[in-house]
Batch of 3 targets.
Target 1
Amino acid sequence: MICALGAAVCFGTASVLQAVATRTAEPGTGSGVDPALLLRALRQWRYGAGLALDGLGFALQIVALRSLPIYAVGAALAASLAVTAVVAARLLAVRLSGAEWGAVAVVCGGLALLGLASGPEGHRAGPAALGWVMLAVAGAVLLAGAAAGRLPDRPRALVLGLGSGFGFGVVEVSVRLIDGPDPANPALYALLLGGGAAFLLLTSALQRGSVTTATAGMVLGETIGPALVGVVWLGDRTRDGLEWLAVAGFAVAVAGALALARFGEPPTAGEAAGDTPGKTAGGAP
């Protein structure tokens, strides 16, 4: 659990650093799948620092996934949303409103309920086709991102963030399906494709959308789906009699993310550069 919480700090900080970097890069095609945007962002030192934090967070996450149920790890990673909000308030020179802080707390609280309902880690290998399913989901994330990238900025950040979360969710499940470097295991390729797709979508989401909204979508995507896979196919279980708590946590987390998308606004170019401190994320003084 300490490793999972450490990963949340790394991921939450990395999201803000990457948001600052992508907003100084040229816009590109506007698609949610824009490799050229990723290459331009890589020229920014902040994006490189964010990638280094992502790498450290991923290593910590692997340790946690080998010891805890998937959705317990996901609930701990929900803390990255709060980390993102705090760091964004500093580096993006914006101040979150009380409604936005409330939405952050609701998302984290809902996912924490999922964590409280978690039981022991499962040890089933899952059906043989599960690796292929994960590979198909990773491909679908790329296609969905290409379409979602043309939405207006506010829903765009949430949808692309959600898509990136599904990509990272593929990575989480694939980690459980990989026992060693087996080239014949489709889960290995699902891990690579899912991680790459997730980075492309998240980079696009952070460029023009609210960083807290994008992160909220990402947290939901990488928590709910993998949790269900762990319960249905990998043997993860809730604690006896706490199924209702898991359902309640899901509903609360979804409501909080939708509220954050409702209140969250992308900062202006001046705010991203730190020229107009003292405004809320919605633009009000």
Note: The longest helix spans residues 153-177.
Target 2
Amino acid sequence: MRAARLHAVRLGPRSLAALALVGAVGVAAFGWPFLAPPASQLSAHAQDAPWLFAGLLILLVAVVAATISESDLGPKAVAMLGVLAATGAALRPIGAGTAGIEPMFFLMVLSGRVLGPGFGFALGSVTMFASALLTGGVGPWLPFQMLAMGWFTMGAGLLPGPVRLRGRTEVALLAAYGFLAAFAYGTVMNLAGWPFMGAAASNISFDAHASVPANLARFVAYCLATSLGWDLGRALCTVLLTLVLGPAVLRALRRATRRAAFETAVTFDAPKCTQNGSGTSHSASEPVKHPT
């Protein structure tokens, strides 16, 4: 029988509440063009965007802090988070600017699968933040990227069969998820910039006076015209790396997780006592004194 799945970060009540809050705010921030009625006051959102982005970033930090404090994240899990985040941040610039080739995404899929949704959300957010510092990509879009990548990595941890499903079937499942989620990530990130193009820029930009179906048609046209090729490259790269490197990386991550034993409490044994030739007991860690 297989061992139960180990979680480096367990989501408790406070963590789930914070995650639900930031998710609701994130959905509103991404989808407000389709949630607000035409000609509403939200057309002034562009002026308030920096404040909203700052609020999102604060909520993301609160989610990670609540997750860590409630799950009693140990030094081994912190080390694992740091290593994977640094690796993902280093992988991101490899294909930057080249047809959407972003090898970071396949590592996020596999890490979220092995280490669970709680660790996955924290890893996705931290990795995107670290990569922004590494590449100089800090800007008002960063909180959106952190949230979207957190969702992306957490989704891999929520896939079915984390204990029983292994082998080619699991790799195929992760490849399919990576393909679809790569498109979803690109589509969600399009929502972060599309409303601020300005109605005069193009007939595919957001129009605050148009109806929701009309704006939805504009958004689909915007995605097809601007990001379809990039998202397809990201999706194909994720699938290829998952199929080729996935089995080896999954084994390495699971081996490291078993050895780390995140859920095993650290205990210290009391010193053992032995008896010397004179019948008196002494600690095994203390030197034995013999009579002269």
Note: DSSP finds eight helices and two strands in the chain.
Target 3
Amino acid sequence: MEGPFLRSPATQDGLAARRVSSGETESDRNVKTQFRVCRFMMETGVKLGMRSVPVATACVLYHRFFERVSAHAYEPYLVAMSCVYLAGKVEEQHTRTRDIINVSHRYFNSDSAPLDCDKEFWDLRDSVVQCELLILRQLNFQVSFEHPHKYLLHYLLSVKSLVNRHAWSRTPVAETSWALLRDCYHGAMCIRHLPQHIAIATLHLALNSYGVELPVGEKEWWQVLCMDVTKAHIDAVVSDLLQLYDMEAKCI
């Protein structure tokens, strides 16, 4: 199941794999592929006008799927397209397969015209639909997920009320928190940690980045907002996120 415009990135990944040093493991190459494919889904989602939660759902579907199958068993970009298609249904922002295929085609071939509705196009469309069914079966039709987004929104509102409004307006804590949260979906860390812990950790990192201090009480602010989170949880999420940024540098 490989479309005509999907061969290019797959071939590039193969060439990159052959160029890597002997010290790079198979796991490292798989993580790089994950990162690149998730970036593809995010950029495709933006061009399709999808909201942040459906795009996050597409990434989780992708990570959950490859938890259960071999990383080499299926073409990753085809799976990604099917995840975007399925996520639109799950989050009630349905997107046509034709639009997904054309946007994906432009992602890899920026100067080309939309694909003709010929046999090759319909074969690719059928592959996307068939892959969607495969994903559903592999995940036992469990395709609804709880994301950190609602928690982060709540935590931001709570923290904002504790900070001097002038200090808050001078620092983009909210924007940075949302950007960090989005970045979490580039890797499998988004399914390894509880959504509440991811939300707390991204806000914690954003506050520390800008030196924003909160009033000191008997408990840390993050303990007040999320009773079951510990400093170890926060550190684990931040560590995974920093590893993703290190991976980003290697993927450029």
Note: The chain has two domains: 4-138, 149-251.
